[in-house]
Amino acid sequence: MEDEPTPEPTPTLDEAEQLKQDNIDAAKKRIIDFSAAAAAVGAAGYEGWEELEDYLSLDLWPFYADLYAEGEAAGAYSDGAGQAASMTVTGYQPSDAGLERVTIDVCIDRSASRAYDGDGELIDRGDTPDRVVVEYVVVHNGPNTWWRIAEMKPRTDEKC
After folding, report:
1. pTM metric for this prediction
2. DSSP output for 4-72
3. Most buried residue, 104, 118, 129, 143, by CB count within 10 Å?
4. What is the pLDDT of residue 98?
């Protein structure tokens, strides 16, 4: 009977690398969850937009709160949702206090998403392509807490 080859051991990450990977995964999930929640709010005519507050930092929230409130008041709505076609981590800032920051470039495909004004007229996106890069900065609020999106910077001139 021949000796069977010994399988190669699966490499494991050390504790710091595992924490980094877990944090990156959590930040990516937060972006995806926010996108889904925002799409649902848009489809409901922006009713219930207040529930999106937990996804955004205290600095970012006022701008989006005004935007969502204006959409609701105007009777605007959307259908479909942008999809993350790819996510590329471009920065990671560790923190011993659990205040990590993850920067992620997300290629968003908006081809299946449309926005409408209060009269039901399609809002023209102009020359903005269906696929755009948005740079997200997602921050951790400390151990055993949630992540919040601190920055969303669309780079509409950058195709993906």
Report:
1. 0.87
2. PPPPPPPP---HHHHHHHHHHHHHHHHHHHHHHHHHHHHHTTTTTGGGGGGGB-TTTHHHHHHHHHHHH
3. 104
4. 87
